[in-house]
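Fold it.
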Amino acid sequence: MSRGKRPKDEILLKNFAKRFKILSGNLPLKKISEKLDNIVSIQTLYGYQHGLSLPSPAVLLKISEKFNITIDWLLKGEHSSIPRNEREKEFLNKFRKAEELMVTDKIESYCNYLIEEAKNLKEK
């Protein structure tokens, strides 16, 4: 363990690094920095990817916004998954907007209807 970190901190660092690598994929650190509006250096991003450091709350928020994921997922791996493609990301953004407008129950009902219809067509 480096610099007096407790084992729990080591686990948090390791898990954050794993999720950050998933998020950033094959993007070069320079591109990640640009995507985050250059608020963190390439060296700092390297530290995130290799479990050497954790972002500040402000940087966590920026990562969350720019990559469209929750801070819970970044830190704990809970309550969110990464959209698999742009279409899914777009749908998630629309769903969040619908949530703000309090119409998600209608969307959920319609989605359930469409799924049942597709199942029925598939069975025929």
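The helical segments are 7-24, 29-35, 42-49, 57-67, 71-76, 86-100, 104-123.
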